[in-house]
Amino acid sequence: MAEPPYKRARRPDSKQMWEESDRRSGPRDREEPRDRRDDRYGDRDRDRNRRYRSRSPRGSRGDRDRGRGGRRDDGRDQRGGYRRDERDRGDDRLGRRDVDDRYGGRGGRNRDEAREPRNRPRDRSRSPRRSSSRSPRRETDYDSRKERDVDKGKDPFLGGREEFSKSRTATPPAHVSFKVHGASNGSARDSPAVQDHDRMVTDNNGRNGRANSAVRDTVEEQNVEEDDEIEVQDDGMEDMKAMMGFGGFGTTHMKKVPGNNVSAIRKEKKTEYRQLIAVNLFAKAATVFSSNNSSLSELALKYPELPQLLFLELRKSLAAVLSCFTGTVHAAEEPSILINEIGRASNQSLLWGPYRPNLYFGVRPRIPKSFMGALMWAKVDNYQDVQDNFRHTCEQHDGMKGYGWDEYDPRKGGEQTIHDPTNFIDISTFFVKVPGGSHGGSWAVRIRGKAREDAPEDLKTTVVFHASLEGLGSLGVDEPEPLGYPDDVTFNGESEGLGKYTLTVTKGRGFHPAPSHASYDDKPLDRTMVNSFTVPEEYVWQSKALMFQLMSQQIDEYKEAYGDSGAPPPWQVFTIKNSPGAGNVHMIQKVFEGDFEFDVIFSSGSAERELTSQDVSKYITSNHKSYWERFISAFDPQPPFDVENLQRFTSNMFSNLLGGLGYFYGDAIVDRSYAPEYDEENEGFWEEAAEARARNPPKPEGPYELFTTVPSRPFFPRGFLWDEGFHLLPIADWDMDLTLEVVKSWFNLMDEDGWIAREQILGNEARTKVPPEFQTQYPHYANPPTLFFILENFISKLGAMNGTKPPVNEKLSQGESIYSAHIDNPEVANQYLQNIYPLLKRQFQYFHKTQAGDIKTYDREAYNSKEAFRWRGRTPMHILTSGLDDYPRPQPPHPGELHVDLMSWMGMMTRSLKNIASFLDFKEDVAELTAIETAILRNLDDLHWSQKDKCFCDATIDDYEEHTLDEKLGHLLDLIGDEEELWSDFGIRSLSKKDVFYGTGENYWRGPIWININYLAVTQLLNYAKTTGPYQEKARDLYTRLRMNLVKTIYDEWTETGFAWEQYNPETGKGQRTQHFTGWTSLVVKIMNLEDLSGGKYQAEQPATPKRDEL
User: What function is annotated for this protein (predicted)?
Assistant: First the structure.
């Protein structure tokens, strides 16, 4: 059949997925070995291929395209786990063939670096050797041990809140048990579980829019033209705007490419159904109305049109906050002045942060090619362990007993604890941000190490801070010290966007190893060592590889000087040569015995004065207090979760979501060949597409920049499009302005056709977690448009603040306008929506063009002949683009398929866009979008409801069935509540237990419990539980039990393991696959805030609260 002239299109990204057939198998526990499962390399030991994983496990090489880089998979066990063993044998190995164990002779590659600056032999000895000698402690800050014992706890730097002591471990939290009618539910998991965490103490003290076609169909050009190098003046507002990235919405560094058009596929067959998840995704994420419709598919269609409000007066509360960052702000006579001042103040407060979430601690500004800092540490008691246990990047198999942010506010800082039993130490980082000057203020991090309870008495630990500078500028040591620095070390720097600054690493306090070898005279370990050098820019971020290269050089020198028999002790061997000076890389190393503490202080040259350790102590204390005041105000857990012992759990979940905020910059790999096979219009299209990908090499594009949260710091430390909408739902309750900044950053990545790559692998550092064959993105691959959730939420909050809608069931922050300026100032909100609306329409049109389904060809009866949709990127085993990876779909794949989940997403997108158009008073768009929304809802019933299965299903080509529309909601509620179908005691399964594919194959979306889908289900059940009708009581019962089960499942596993997990086992409730998955699993915070409808049936039993271990 002739192809329509508008057929050519841009399409998705995916290397063909698996061809292997599914095999029935039971669900796997987290503890089951992952290296025995089939993977994309056949029978190869999976344990050798763990460096990388997407949300869908690997199958045959030809049948997979990793948008996420790979799937989150129990089989691969961790994201980014492409080669778990090999990553540990890489650039970070020190050993050489001619160096014995006494010199750390173990070779290999660095697990966290892309490549090494120089080659090294990789052979290593595995013979364990441990030093048995004990060295007396050497004091630094006090004249004697007795004086230290007298003075400990009276730290002049820490104030009253902190205590520096020899206390070894954190006090286990009291476990909260959940009961029905006051009785235990009998689960074995209700018993108290010990968790290796410190206790928490809670301080309870638009312009009127014109709806013409030009407005609707075009995108406004950016006012600030982007360039690779922007000259920034200290006090120039326009230059600051460009540098700080709030110059508006628009395409970032994208080359113009032709638009996409897709026609329907013509095949003559009939229709069959396969059950999809019974939860209709076309549920309101943040609507303020409860629907009276009786079907999950028919949700609130109508919103009142909001008049556009313009206010010209700057609120006093905003001015008070802004003055902290930009000086006094006077009332604005023009909205543009107000908008610019708000943007400048907000971006100043967000310039710095631990924006390298792939590291245990890594700091950088939101400026390309600028200053970067990183923390590394290891115990150095013997020659073997340091090579395996030198910490830098977050890794799933580091054996941590939990790590992450106990409290964190991106605008102020926070506290992080890392429990590292392998190195016998707990590391805490106290990060503070101090406003002042014109370059984003100053910052500091207090690094504290505390020996664990089971640590040896003379535990030796080396700690390294890596300071580096990408791009142009200077960074060098203030004054050289030949034998190391007995006191503070100060660096002077200057670079574009930051101006002049100083970096000081304080002397700190703690004991050091005593002299025990002649080499100590040349390098006394009670001093701070600095090694400064210059490397090519592409190596600057490779902290551990560079550090190991320096230590290898030192090993060679010691071997030559002392031979094998007279080798220095390991704590002397694993040091760097003291060689301070200028360069773009500076390694600052300290060696301690026992507990320690020191500060790294960055002082902006444009600030009034430099920071001191006393200032750091003050800000740690004040930030702790302000965090908890704001946290209790923003999040209000409802019964039975309103107990104090759950506050620490809630804070940990939310803070680690915020702690995953990162700034990424670099090029992306994209295939813009637009091969005809990418239309996926023929039977067997997935094979044709795989062949086309093989012959069309991708090319780098960019560079681009992205400000986003990550799903998991150890496994997926980069941006994922459909995750981000879920991530931002809790963040919007905390800081709406930050939320909108992240949304803007994503939409600035959009190309001219409305495409945003679903996985953002920007730059070399990000690519180290992703094999080359999975790095390519394809413009015809879409992804669920979850960012529309956030704009829907924004509209709801604006309505609540302006009195045009009933209040949302969430507390709106008051009085802290730097967090909520877009809500407090409607003209700012209006301008934001005016700017983003054309981009939203462009993406809406992209979905219609590239993901269209076929109705007419197959004699389908539907209300509307256009509103039907099909994901591109389909293979026999996966639709990675859908986000549901291996969820069973009709077999075999067919170009005439229609996908119910995509239809639901399109309904949600249409409604959200209509509400924004209503707010902006674009009447013509509102009318058009209302008609499309109605058509989608009607077609959802006509095309996707299966009377036989009593649920909404995918449609494919086979036997045709008539539809009946009666009592859909009742059938769906029965399906959800049936324990033999979707219901479990731990949450709703991702696939019916009766399904032939349940627990088979990769078992990724074939039964395990996912919190994002459960969140959509529990919020929609709440809507129906509050709506009068025949199913109200059933919905109330399901809502109450599901809410309880979800919180208990996540909390129990966090208590037991110290982590949130990617998914949970439907049979046991155990967390599985990726650990430290504080992306959408953090939605538990919002679930706890939902209304209690149990009438006191459920209770959380709270034991006596123990005192917090103050470290």
Answer: Cleaves the distal alpha 1,2-linked glucose residue from the Glc(3)Man(9)GlcNAc(2) oligosaccharide precursor.
Separation CA 391–CA 1012 (nearest Å): 31
Burial of 696 (0-12, 13-18, 19+ CB in 10 A): middle
926-947 confidence digits (pLDDT tens): 999 999 999 999 999 999 998 8
DSSP 1025-1047: HTS-STTHHHHHHHHHHHHHHHH
CB-based contact 46:32 (threshold 8 Å): no
| Per-residue pLDDT tens over the stretch 625-679 | 999 999 999 999 999 999 888 999 999 999 999 999 999 999 999 999 999 999 8
Which residues have a Cβ under 8 Å from the Cβ of 893 and sit 6 or more positions away? 685, 686, 874, 875, 876
- Does 671-803+819-965 match 354-634 at the fold level? no
DSSP states of 669-708 as a string? EE-----GGGG--STTHHHHHHHHHHHS--EEEEEEEEEE
277-286, 763-772, 1000-1009: which has the minimum mean pLDDT?
A: 277-286
Classify domain 671-803+819-965 by CATH number: 1.50.10.10
Return the C-alpha torsion angle 855, 279, 809, 209, nearest 10.
Answer: -10
Q: For residues 960 and 843, what is the distance between their CA atoms, to the nearest angstrom?
A: 33
pTM: 0.76
Instruction: Identify the three-state secondary structure at position 335.
Output: helix
In this structure, are residues 589 and 458 in contact, taking their beta carbons and an 8 Å threshold?
Answer: no
Report which DSSP code applies to 421: T
Q: 1104: which DSSP letter?
A: P
pLDDT at 96: 43
Run of H or E including 405: strand 403-409
Class level of CATH domain 354-634 = mainly beta
Does the annotation count 29 as an active-site position?
A: no
Is the pLDDT confidence value at 349 over 70?
yes
Residue 1091 in this model has a pLDDT that exceeds 70: yes
Mark whether 1062 is an active-site residue: yes
Which of 73, 426, 679, 885 is flagged as catalytic? 885
**What's the rounded Cα separation, in Å, for the pair 711 and 727?**
8
Q: What is the pLDDT of residues 464-485, one digit of tens each?
A: 999 999 999 999 998 889 999 9
How many whole angstroms separate alpha carbon 63 and alpha carbon 18?
4
What is the DSSP-derived secondary structure letter of residue 18?
-
DSSP string, 201-220: ------------HHHHH--P
Cα dihedral 37/40/45/46 (nearest 10): -70
d(CA 64, CA 690): 9
Residue the block writes with tokens 């509540």: 977
Which of these is catalytic: 20, 73, 751, 1062? 1062
Residues 375, 465 contacting (CB under 8 angstroms): yes
Domain boundaries, the chain: 354-634, 644-659+968-1092, 671-803+819-965
Other beta carbons within 10 angstroms of residue 208's beta carbon come to 11
User: DSSP letter string over 514-529?
Assistant: PP-SGGGGTS-TTSBE
